[in-house]
Amino acid sequence: MEIRTNEPMARHTSFRVGGPADRFVIPESETELREAVLDCKKSGQPWYMIGNGSNLLVGDKGFRGTIISTERLAELEVQKNENIIIAGAGVMLSKLANTAAREELTGLEFAAGIPGTVGGAVMMNAGAYGSEMKNVLLWADVMDQDGNVKLMKNEELELGYRTSCLERLGLFTVRAAFKLTPGDPEVIRSQMEELARKRKEKQPLEYPSAGSTFKRPEGHFAGKLIEDAGLKGFSVGGAAVSEKHAGFVINKDHGTAADILGLCNEVKRRVKESSGVDLELEVKLLGEF
Questions:
Q1: For this structure, is 131 an active site residue?
Q2: Confidence of residue 237 (pLDDT cuts 50, 70, 90)
Q3: 64 is catalytic
């Protein structure tokens, strides 16, 4: 498998920031993934598994340890008779949704514009526009810290709002199966185009970001709370709250991870001050800031 040293994590996150990882490993099969995990365990060094890095903020000083990337675990199998698609952890959700559309299967339209991978989507129960992975996920093959793989059914994964039991249990997805429904290909494509239009209209897709930066607080919308606190366009260094959608923190002008984190912390402070609501980051923090 490919192993890189001092790999800049800015190349592997959608924020386009992050210092170097000591080692960056790219397995091409389940066997190589197991080898990489066991190698990290044996050496006792910290390690972290990433997909597309679309929900990740890596510190400017980087990560002292090994990053394992699932980018080449990208097999796709369509079981047309069963209306099932099985996808490797590294398959992009856009590719998964487009494969479903091509096979005239409905249920994954919502995922077409989510810039993540299957592995991250299962871990976080990714969702958009009223749908989520929980609605279509059949099962996932998951690996533990000892390289053992087991199948977990949907109900065993404890899928909730942007959460599952995987992180808590130290498990990660190797592949997942999605149960879909036969549909009209024109209707499927039309819905995907409509959601893409909505995204373009309402989200700052022209800037590096990690999508919705904060989780939705119960009974509220993070973007509305941030806007009500007068923070649209507010910036720290090169990071800013999007003018288009206050729920998005963007890397507007060559910002650093420190800029982004500083901005997020200031947004949390001011929203708490103005509304009494505690915002919680949806974005994962990794490495040294």
A1: no
A2: very high
A3: no
